[in-house]
Amino acid sequence: MEDFSNHSNNETFESILNAHISRRQALVGGVASAALLFVGANAASAQPSRSSLARSVFGARKSPKIGFSSIPLQSGPMPTIAQEYAMSVLAPWREKLDGSGTSFEYVGFTAAQQEQSVGIGHDGMWYFGSDSKGLLCVNHEYGTAPHMLGKSVPTNLDEVRLMQAGHGMSVIAIEKSAKGWKIAKSKKNRRITANTPATFSGPAASSALLVNPANNPVLGTLNNCANGYTPWGTYLTCEENFNGYFGATSSSWRASTSQARYGVTATGFGYDWHKYDPRFDLSNAAYANEINRFGWVVEVDPNKPGSTPVKRTALGRVKHEGADVVEGKNGRIVVYMGDDERFDYIYKFVSRDNWKKMRSRGVSPLDEGTLYVAKLNADGTGQWLELSTANPALATWTIDRILVETRLAADLAGATKMDRPEWISTNKAGETYVTLTNNTRRGTSGQAPADAANPRAVNTYGHIIRFRDGDKHIGTSFVWEIFALADNVFDESGQMFGSPDGIWADEDGRVFVQTDGEQPDRHNDQMLVADSKTREFKRLFTGVVGGEVTGVAVTPSRKTMFINIQHPGDGDNTRTNFPAKFTGAAGPVPRDSIVVISRKNGGIVGT
Ligand code: FEO
Ligand code: CA
Ligand code: CA
Ligand code: CA
Fold this sequence. Notes:
By secondary structure, this protein is mainly β. It is built from nine helices and 30 strands.
């Protein structure tokens, strides 16, 4: 998005790094590697020497095997992968969910057909199953009118309904056959769309802020970006840029303070749904609070096809990128979440009690607990600031307002403005990795300057932070350091990437990094594998022109990985026909698809 909406006056830290930090130091030595030896709920106040620190707190003890041959950047119409690996395509947009292996045609495609087939804009996902069959939950973040309809905007309600049906997520039964992975026939195959009945749960569930004068039911999920999954077998799908789907038909409409803070405008992102579907018309008083019904983490039980998706209000309302779930001390559930906008924040939720005990009492661990927002100090420590009425800054608020207008609450709490927090992933060793995708406004006129945690003004290529949370994830302090600054300079590690977005830290110390956006010299998006000990990167996969590489899921053995190509060619068939063979202007429209990756010798993906 071209704008940002955090105009709060939160403190930003003096740059302790600025232009003098050497790039090599940044990549290998650790910028701001002021990681203090961590001693529990309260970080040590003494600052140890640089040499004593990061190694004892961050990175794998021993380098994981990353033995494949790194490949060069690409700019062509089809993906490439390291020579030791094989790939195949699964579940492209419009493939029927009946296991027939066939797809609906692009021309004449209807909303009813879309509801029975794979959606568009494949993004975060997770796999629940064995090494040969199971359920893959796949988010469908977005589809534009040019790509879905072949026209610039929808011009009737049927076209809006088709676009809405392409959004949401799919639960897809898949199985491995002699010819590779395919969609299986299953009663569990399911589409959840922008019009599927949903429900609210948690502290804000009965808030007046979530009710419309029209008394219309809660429907749908939108802009489902990254994801999470729980130890009790459910999937979390996260609503990100929901603001873009709303618009106003009346020229007298003005954004409220809350709406402005969420980037809500009269035209949205140009989807024009509001012209045909009153639910998305900001100036229709009957639907005044409809927009508050989006921006949530939504829980879906893939094994119960008749279940209603539940919007978990305790996790707050922001432009949720993902929801990284960790089992913390005493079995409490911890969820790390990024709010992806320039100068927005990193959050965590901690359940009130042990998750098994809560569930045995019939309470969801995602319904009772405490929400926090992160403050990152220049010395490499950080605090989790509580977002509740117990915080003096929020004493006059109500909990439902804190959870619905979470960005405004976090502004008052004093959170650190970040360079667009995207995915978060915590590994078995308890390190949490966060991608900060980019922020070209950082340090520009009138905007927050560079600081320790966001060390570059005009941050074109983004960076990755890692932190170690206090008290086995449930504490209120943490230590952090910069893991990598992405840039456009080749070095011996060959990393050269920009706009890190998807991230997954595996149990051996590998960090898979996927990109979305500005790549050096306008190359295609890619997936790299980093060594958390040495911080060396190798490039495993490159995507297609105009497309993003996003989403990562693995089978239990980790010998099969699923990733996505989103918006190949930005929908333009003169750039690519992926996954079909590229034929140029007359060829088929490109289709968002899953790519299945395996090592030819059967090893763990990443080795
Ligand atoms: Fe949907 Fe922030 O990426
Ligand atoms: Ca993303
Ligand atoms: Ca992104
Ligand atoms: Ca994207």
